[in-house]
Design brief:
The complex is a heterodimer of chains A (about 190) and B (about 110).
Chain A: E1 12-14, E2 17-21, E3 26-31, H1 37-46, E4 58-60, E5 65-70, E6 73-78, H2 83-93, E7 100-103, E8 108-115, H3 119-125, E9 142-147, E10 150-156, E11 162-167, H4 171-181
Antiparallel strand pairs in A: 1-2, 2-8, 3-6, 3-7, 4-5, 5-6, 8-11, 9-10, 10-11
Helix pairs in contact in A: 1-2
Chain B: E1 3-5, E2 12-14, E3 19-23, H1 35-43, E4 51-57, E5 65-71, E6 77-82, H2 90-99
Antiparallel strand pairs in B: 1-2, 3-4, 4-5, 5-6
Classes of the chains: A alpha+beta (about 190), B alpha+beta (about 110).
InterPro entries (chain A): SoxG, TrmE/GcvT-like
Organism (chain A): Pseudooceanicola pacificus
Pfam families (chain A): SoxG (PF04268)
Chain lengths: ~190, ~110
C-alpha cells in the first residue's frame, strides 16, 4: 500500500509571516438538517463530543474540529485513523434519516499562517474580501470565502494564528498567494 | 461595489464573493404555454434605472441562492431575502418606498 502524501509535501515559507502546509488531517463533510436532533446526536458521537458550532464558527479541540460550512453542511476534522470510525458512528446514529457523510481528506490542502502580532491577519486581509479586524474576526471564527481567484476557508486559533483549507488541485496556487502576501514588512494596521 | 448580506449564513461581503444570477421572480413558462409566453420567459428582462430585484448566489461561501433588492443608479442595497419567496416581502417594499417614493418594478410597487 502506498503512503498518502499531502499536495505540497509539507512546504514551508518564512517571511514576515510563516506559512506551512499542515500534515494530513481526516476530514468528513456532513450534510443534513442541523435542526435535527438525530444529526446533532450523531455528530456529537462521531466527533468525540464536540459541541455544534453556530453560524460562522468552528469548535476547536486539541486534534479535532467541527466547522460550520453552511446552514446544512458541517465539516468534521479529526485524525486520519479515526475517519472510518466516525463515518460508522454517523451511519449508526442517522439510520433511517436523510443525510450525507463523505470523507474528503485527500480532496483538500491545509495551511497554517502565523507571525508576530497581527501579521497573520494582514496576510489574509490582502487576499480575501473579509473584515479581519479583531472586533469582527477572532479565535473560533470560521469563514468560507475567496482567496484571490479560488474558494477557500479559514479559521482562527486561540494563539492568533490561522489555519486555512483549499481544494488540493489549487494548493500550489494558494501557497504561492500566501507566500507573496507574507513578504515584506508588517503594516501594523490591525 | 455592492455590499451584500447573505440571508442564509449571515455573512456580509462585497460582490466578488457572490455571483449574480439575473432578474428575480421570473415566472416559468414551459410545456403547453404559448410561444409568446415562452419567449418572454426566456428572453424578456427588465433593465431598470433605479430599483431592481435580482438573484444572487453566495458562490464562494455557503453556496446558497438568495434575492437582493438594490438601486442600479447608486448601487445601494436595500436588502436581501431568502430564495424561497415568490415576491418581494412587504417590509422591504415599504423600506424602498421610504427611500424611493413612487418606485415601480414589474407589477410591484
Amino acid at each position: 500500500m502506498s503512503e498518502p502524501v499531502t499536495a505540497l509535501n509539507g512546504a514551508t515559507y518564512a517571511g514576515v509571516a510563516r506559512i506551512a502546509e499542515l500534515p494530513r488531517r481526516g476530514m468528513i463533510t456532513i450534510r443534513g438538517s442541523q435542526e435535527s436532533a438525530a444529526l446533532v446526536a450523531a455528530v456529537g458521537a462521531a466527533s468525540g463530543g464536540l459541541d455544534m458550532p453556530g453560524p460562522g464558527e468552528a469548535v476547536i479541540a486539541a486534534d479535532r474540529m467541527l466547522g460550520w460550512m453552511s446552514p446544512d453542511e458541517l465539516l468534521l476534522m479529526l485524525p486520519p485513523a479515526e475517519v472510518a470510525g466516525a463515518l460508522a458512528a454517523l451511519a449508526e446514529g442517522m439510520a433511517g434519516e436523510h443525510y450525507l457523510a463523505v470523507e474528503v481528506t485527500d480532496a483538500r490542502a491545509l495551511f497554517s499562517i502565523s507571525g508576530e502580532g497581527a501579521v497573520a491577519r494582514e496576510v489574509l486581509a490582502r487576499l480575501a474580501p473579509v473584515d479581519l479586524s479583531p472586533a469582527a474576526f477572532g479565535p473560533g471564527n470560521f469563514r468560507r470565502t475567496r482567496l484571490a481567484q479560488v474558494p477557500a476557508a479559514f479559521w482562527m486559533l486561540e494563539d492568533g494564528s490561522f489555519e486555512l483549507m483549499c481544494f488540493r488541485s489549487v494548493a500550489a496556487y494558494v501557497f504561492g498567494l500566501l507566500c507573496t502576501a507574507g513578504e515584506g514588512d508588517a503594516v501594523g494596521h490591525y | 461595489m455592492l455590499l451584500l448580506e447573505c440571508p442564509c449564513c449571515g455573512v456580509t461581503a462585497e460582490e466578488t464573493e457572490f455571483h449574480g444570477g439575473g432578474e428575480a421572480h421570473l415566472k416559468r413558462f414551459g410545456p403547453e404555454s404559448s410561444d409568446q409566453e415562452f419567449e418572454g420567459y426566456l428572453f424578456n428582462r427588465v433593465n431598470p434605472r433605479g430599483v431592481h430585484f435580482e438573484r444572487w448566489r453566495h458562490v464562494n461561501g455557503c453556496g446558497k441562492w438568495f434575492h437582493a433588492a438594490r438601486c442600479t443608479v447608486t448601487l445601494e442595497v436595500f436588502g436581501t431575502y431568502p430564495a424561497q419567496t415568490v415576491e418581494p416581502p412587504q417590509i422591504l417594499r415599504e423600506l424602498i418606498s421610504s427611500k424611493r417614493p413612487g418606485w415601480q418594478w414589474r407589477e410591484f410597487t
